[in-house]
Amino acid sequence: MRYLIALAFSILTCTIKSQVLPADTIPAIIRVNSDSTKIKFGATLRELRQISGAPVPFYTYFWEFGDGNFSFEKEPFHCYTDTGTYNIRMYATNNYDDGKPPPTRPKKIKVDKQQPAQYANNNYFKSGGSIQLKTNRMPKPAEEMVLIIGYRNKPEWNVSNLSGKLALMYNEKQFKQNNFALNDARSHHNEQKTEINTLLTYVPVKKTVEDDWKQKGGPGQIEIFKTDENSKVLKDKTDLFRNTEAWKFENLKQGEERFMFISLNTTPEMLQDTNAVVTISAVFIPDDPLIEHEITDLQLQIVASHDPNKMMLKNRRMNYRFTGKKRELNYKVRFQNTGEGPAKKVAIGVRSAGILDLSTLKVSGSQPKCIPCDSAYANQSCLDTVVTRDSVEFIFRNIYLPGVKQKGVSDLDSTMGYVEYTVKFKKKPKKVPFDSQAAIVFDKNEPIYTNRSVGRFKPGLSPAIIAVYGSQVNNPKSVALGNRNFGLGASIAPFAPHRKYLQWEIYVNSFNESETYLGRKNGGDTVINRIAYKIDYREGFQKTKIASIDVVPAQLRYNINSFMGIGAGALVSVNISTSKEKIKNFYVQSYNGQVAETTVLSSSENEDIKGFDQWKTTLFADVQLGRVRVGPSLGLRYLHTLNVNDRRLSTYLTWKF
To answer: Are 385 and 393 in contact (CB under 8 A)?
Structure first.
């Protein structure tokens, strides 16, 4: 009985322990404190777990207040101008943490009293446009991301009431798999969902006045309505994406700003594209034809962990066929001051790939915006660029970059910066991945190392034509194949592979006529036209001519260098046409008087076979010399057929395009 009680206690203990939530699954607890004028929000989160060797981990926050407003502050204040029930959402991002973000659980609050309007999403439209996109975090595989769509009626348009349409485009066709799945779209200003086809049908027109020289008495002026050229740009833009969403909005007041919130689930398949840069686009189309529509792009880097210091290469997967010395690469290094005070100097050292020509480097943008140090006066904010043999250092001098933990800092964008630059190749590169990495130093602190930004080349396709001449090595009499064969075919392989690759081939082969001895039989008598003959012996022969199709479903090739390659694989062939002629020769004697005369009598029988009548499996290995990656080359291939006693040596000429 004692043992049963102990066993039951152990099982109960294990059950209780198994019900304890892992740290990553503990949702955030939203705290709400209100008074007559405003409401203060806060959250209780799990403790952070620092990644070994990384900076001190910290949370960044994104709040949705349920009325179309939001905040990126840790403990924001908000005022509700209308009574009602609101769903509060808080998304926390765990930077430099080895776990997952705390799950989001909406919390309902009831507002019984109107509060004075004090909240405004200031500085959202920093680009000065009418539509802008922003996310709460970079996309990480298998995590949720919130996309903010902000749109507005610019005061300078002098339009008191504006209606129109919005469109969102995501999941670029250049990627094989979808990167995002739309989970939810939260609107707060009666935006109505519509079809993208309806949006594309709406084509603004512009009225122009031109001279008409066809009128009598000289030129006159006529009004011509032309389709807006931007409409074609919109159609072309839409064609780049697999998924689109569209909404219709109404009664947007002059100077009013509105926001929609889109929850996107990032797919687990994104993991194979870590460090790739994806684009999400949005378009703003007013119904007023006098106001041009606007397209905005948001470029996001797929990350394996949340780290505000990142290096990325735009369009990192390149088409090798069109990549040469003049190809320009666009790099961007992002950084964020996560400290408790401002940084006056930020140094970014970049280890560059050896195939890049740093003498072609040009700075294309930076934040904070600074002039070059060689043209700055003493103590002026500037950006210094120091290029060495295989590295480059960007130094922001005399700047003021606030820290995330600095007291009084509420705008996280002000704590971030970047440097963007372009660079070219030294020469046409080899078709192998190449990488760069940055180290970021804030003032005199320890360096923070970014991810490795890797550039890759797409496999591409390289078709080729092949001409073959082969001959038998063993020349067996028992095999009805010609001792020589001629073939013409084609192959498909990746374009200009550097080392190992797979190749597929197909041929049509024609063999020369072969002759097979069927045997000899002695003796016998016969009568032909009343004349008696004595048969000395008879012999049989068969002449065969074959045409076949050969397919190479699997072949592994390896380029030793640009001028020599080797390969091995398996070949399956089937006869598609077989012509047979059976010949019988009779050697007979006839007696003309008393003298014996020897006569040869022959008969033949023809047979043509169409269709697949014989399958053969062959192993082969070969060597190639010439321009083995792209261009002409000559090969020598040894073939050993498994189910037929046939061995051949083939010489072939191929040209890869």
So the answer is: yes
Given a contact cutoff of 8 angstroms between Cβ atoms, the answer to whether 63 and 88 are in contact is: yes
Residue listed under structure tokens 């709400």: 32
Interstrand relation of 448-458 and 192-194 (parallel, antiparallel or unpaired): unpaired
**What is the mean pLDDT of each successive set of 10 residues along the chain, which is 657 residues long?**
48 44 73 86 91 86 94 91 92 90 91 74 82 92 93 93 94 89 94 80 51 46 50 80 94 94 88 76 91 90 86 89 92 92 95 94 94 92 93 96 87 91 94 94 92 91 95 68 85 95 93 68 67 71 81 94 96 83 70 56 66 85 96 96 88 95
Quote the CA–CA distance of 327 and 434 in Å, as a whole number.
15
Provide φ and ψ at 126, rounded to 5°: -70, -25
Asked if residue 204 has a cis previous peptide bond (ω within 30° of 0), the answer is no
β-strand 317-319 against 448-458: which pairing, if any?
A: parallel
Contacts of 42 (CB under 8 A, 6+ apart): 30, 31, 33, 74, 75
- Of 3.30.460.80, 3.40.50.300, 3.40.1190.20, 2.60.40.10, the CATH number of 24-301 is 2.60.40.10
CA distance 24 to 92: 12
How far is it, in rounded angstroms, from Cα 194 to Cα 245?
8
Spell out the domain ranges in the chain.
Answer: 24-301, 310-458, 462-656
Residue 653 burial by CB count (10 A; 0-12/13-18/19+): exposed, middle or buried?
A: middle
- Cβ–Cβ < 8 Å for 341, 398: no
- Whether 24-301 shares its CATH topology with 310-458 is answered yes
- Single-letter amino acid code for the residue at 552: V
DSSP letter for each residue of 148-191: EEEEE--GGG--SEEEEEEEEEEEETTSSS--EEEEEEE-SS--
- C-alpha dist (Å) from residue 13 to 22, 26, 509: 17, 21, 75
**Bridge partner list, 368:** none
Do 200 and 216 contact (CB within 8 A), yes or no? no
Q: Which two tokens stand for residue 6?
A: 């102990």
Separation of alpha carbons 657 and 654, rounded Å: 10
Count CB neighbours of 317 within 10 A. Answer: 16
Nearest to 249 by CA among 319, 193, 204: 193
Strands (E), 368-408: 371-372, 382-387, 391-397
252-to-82, 147, 248 alpha-carbon distances in Å? 19, 21, 11
Task: Name every residue whose Cβ is closer than 8 Å to that of residue 261 and which is 6 or more positions away in sequence.
Answer: 64, 70, 146, 147, 148, 149, 185, 186
d(CA 265, CA 5): 48
In this structure, which long-range contacts are made by residues 373-378, counting pairs with CB atoms below 8 Å and at least 24 apart in sequence?
Answer: 373/397
> What's the confidence (pLDDT) of residue 517?
67
Residues in CB range of 457: below 8 A, 6 or more apart: 317, 318, 319, 320, 323, 431, 433
Give the three-state DSSP class for 628: coil
Task: Could you please state the CATH topology (level 3) that the domain comprising 310-458 is classified under.
Answer: Immunoglobulin-like (2.60.40)
Closest by CA position to 541, among listed 591, 581, 484, 583: 583
Per the CB < 8 A criterion, the answer to whether 489 and 505 are in contact is yes
Closest CA to 325 of 229, 457, 426, 252: 426
Overall size of the chain counted in residues: 657
Name residues whose C-beta falls within 8 Å of residue 587's C-beta, 6 or more positions apart in sequence.
535, 536, 537, 538, 539, 598, 599, 600
